Amino acid sequence: MVDLQGQYRRLKEELDTSLGEVLSSARFVRGPEVHAFEEELASYVGTPHVVACASGTDALQLALMSLGLQPGDEVVTVPFTFVSTVEVIALLGLKPVFVDVCPDTFCMDVTQLESVLTPRTRAILPVHLFGHCVDMEPLLSFARKHGLFVVEDACQAIGAEVVFSDGTRRQAGTMGDIGCTSFFPSKNLGCYGDGGALFVRDEVLADKVRIMANHGMRERYHYECIGLNSRLDTLQAAVLRVKLRHLDEFTSIRRQTAAEYTSALDHHPAFSTPMIAPYSTHVFHQYTLKLNGISRQSLKEKLDAAGIPTAVYYPKPLHLQEAYGHLGYKSGDFPVSERLAQCVLSLPMHTELSHEQIQYIVHNLVQHI
Questions:
Q1: Per-residue 3-state assignment (H helix, E strand, C coil) for 176-242
Q2: Span 35-51, pLDDT tens digits
Q3: How far apart are CA 277 and CA 261, in angstroms?
Q4: Which is it for strands 196-200 and 217-219: parallel, antiparallel or unpaired?
Q5: To 10 degrees, the CA torsion angle through 311, 313, 315, 320?
Q6: What does the pLDDT average to over 339-346?
Q7: Is 230 exposed, middle or buried (0-12, 13-18, 19+ CB in 10 A)?
Q8: In this structure, which topology does domain 4-99+109-245 adopt according to CATH?
Q9: Measured distance CA(151)–CA(28) in Å, rounded
Q10: How far is CA 250 from the centre of its chain?
Q11: At a CB cut-off of 8 Å and minimum separation 6, what does 57 contact?
Q12: Main-chain phi, psi angles of 40, to 5 degrees
């Protein structure tokens, strides 16, 4: 699904030099590369402040911690996402409240927000899934009208843009109060371990997040608030500084790969190819098909036998998971998410796929349905 070795070979000279400089300095925690990466990433996405942390999950938790929410407050999100989105809400004693997703973009159906609004609603947590953005213009308008925080889960969508009705464009993660991203190795901008970051517009809030990520400490051994040990390692920052310089190139490669897949599969009745809505660009963290009337398991097995990996993101929506049974949801409550969990299939998507490999994948897809 991901060729990290091939990407390393592509960037080997730059990466080895950057990592060697950190090893020589022996400044492995909070070294200068971390601050430099934060500044470079802030410039890239167009936000005043970036706070690096230890993972995308930590970024989401720090974001919610910093907003002063109280146990029992409700945070609206979606059940068709990776568990971290909902996990951090529950860990903080907040209540996850779900709305369904759109069947074509896999992202939050913003038209459903009004139906779940209660006096305890405090925040909305939209997920920019697979590299495509949520329809943020009506979402932000709804949040402003009702005085709600917006925390964007942009862990799969770095570099994607929302196009507003007036023509302005904003990058995923930079439109709400706080945006969160992940640098897990398989991400479009990935390090060689865990890592994450928060995008923050307000200087006071950014300062609060930065302190919280360092045990609640600004001055050594003086604790202003309860925090976490959530720091991006200097070695990971060194990797990310190199990869950030190539991110636009890598996004272009992903889009070209997606275009090849779509050109070959778009008119085949067994497949629904990814949709790109007019309000969003797509950076294709995943290339995810919907299968129409064919056995996913049988197709997966045949592709596996041909040496082609595939993945299902995600096989069971979160409202039906045992860990979240206490929320009281049942089968049928979110029919789009439930249907997608049964029919989605993601194909290999990374920067090292050759034209011949793509053709081989497509040939086997069509042959084995």
A1: CCEEEEECCCCCCCCCCCCCEEEEECCHHHHHHHHHHCECCEEECCEECCCCCECCCEHHHHHHHHH
A2: 999 999 999 999 999 99
A3: 18
A4: unpaired
A5: 160
A6: 98
A7: buried
A8: Aspartate Aminotransferase; domain 2 (3.40.640)
A9: 30
A10: 16
A11: 84, 87, 88, 182, 196
A12: -65, -40
Peptide bond into 314 cis (omega under 30): yes
Q: Fold match between 4-99+109-245 and 247-367?
A: no
CB of 275 closer than 8 Å to CB of 258: no
CA distances to 4, 100, 106, 114, 326 from 96, in Å = 35, 13, 19, 16, 11
Q: Helix, strand or coil for residue 5?
A: helix
The domain limits of the chain are: 4-99+109-245, 247-367
The identity of residue 20, as a single letter, is: G
Three-state SS at 270: coil
CATH ID of 247-367, from 3.90.1150.10, 2.40.260.10, 3.60.21.10, 1.20.58.410: 3.90.1150.10
> Which of 161, 81, 73 lies closest to 124 in space, CA to CA?
73
Residues in the chain: 369
Q: pTM score, two decimals?
A: 0.97
Strand, helix or coil at 354?
coil
234-272 pLDDT per residue, tens: 999 999 999 999 999 999 999 999 999 999 999 999 999
List of residues 6+ apart from 43 with CB closer than 8 A: none
C-alpha to C-alpha distance for 185 and 286, rounded to whole angstroms: 14
* % of the chain beyond a pLDDT of 90: 99
